[in-house]
Amino acid sequence: MDDRLLTTGLADEIEFLTARARAVGTAHANASLAPLDLRVRSYSVLALAASGVDPTQRELAEFLSLDASQIVALVDGLESRGLVVRTQDARDRRSNAISATPAGRALAAKAAVIVRRAETESLSGLTSAERDRLRELLKKAAFTG
Amino acid sequence: MDDRLLTTGLADEIEFLTARARAVGTAHANASLAPLDLRVRSYSVLALAASGVDPTQRELAEFLSLDASQIVALVDGLESRGLVVRTQDARDRRSNAISATPAGRALAAKAAVIVRRAETESLSGLTSAERDRLRELLKKAAFTG
User: Fold this and answer.
1) What residues of B are in contact with residue A53 (Cβ under 8 Å)?
2) How far apart are alpha carbons B44 and B29 in whole angstroms?
3) What range does the domain containing B68 cover?
4) Distance (Å, rounded) from C-alpha B100 to C-alpha B43?
5) ipTM of this predicted structure
6) Residue B92 pLDDT > 90
7) If you ran DSSP here, which 8-state letter would residue B56 be given?
8) Which of A116, A124, A143 sits opposite B144 (nearest CB)?
9) Residue A33 in domain
10) Domain count, chain B
């Protein structure tokens, strides 16, 4: 790492630091998920589909900060692998609810373990207490504003 | 916000939370920078070019977690507006160093104020002490691993 740029004002901006932390974390998580033929985005959709909540595509897009077209492509990919199915949403007949198949739930469980491990590895410079505090503050940051 | 999805395991993963916090922060910062005809990425390059460090394109790419081709396009855009110039790097004659013109430095200073304000607005759910703690933890997360 080049220390020269760390002395700049940009290196103290939360916007920049969040983007960089995310790039570092995503690269490591993508590499860790590769043996399961998943990436962070497809894993996120699968994890939500396997959560028992049966989200609609619109809920997935909003929650994951992705476009509707990106969600459709991700769901298509998981559906073609037999990991999720589209069913009619019980609360809104015009919407599809996405739920994981038994194979999808099994893969989601495996992937969740891998992502947790990747998180600890990516954040090896933080203590366990610091990781928990970061999680708590990011949760506030991600769900206000 | 849909509380249903907040109960899922994904909502506790730092990888997911960082991606979401970044999406929220970037959208707000981009909107705030629009009057200056800047976006977060072009602003980041301009801020580093105006910092006095005169980074090379390679340093910019590494620091901002962007591809070389993205950096070239961003520098081209700023150069065509007279905000930065490419000069021969004093430490490595084969590299270009990017430095801001007086107009670039003036715009970078304006933009930095806007980005700081956008940061406070985006993180309105956090106290000032929590923002500082988040900054500190993100810095550790962004520069280890």
Assistant:
1) 4-5, 7-8
2) 11
3) 21-122
4) 12
5) 0.90
6) no
7) B
8) A124
9) no
10) 1
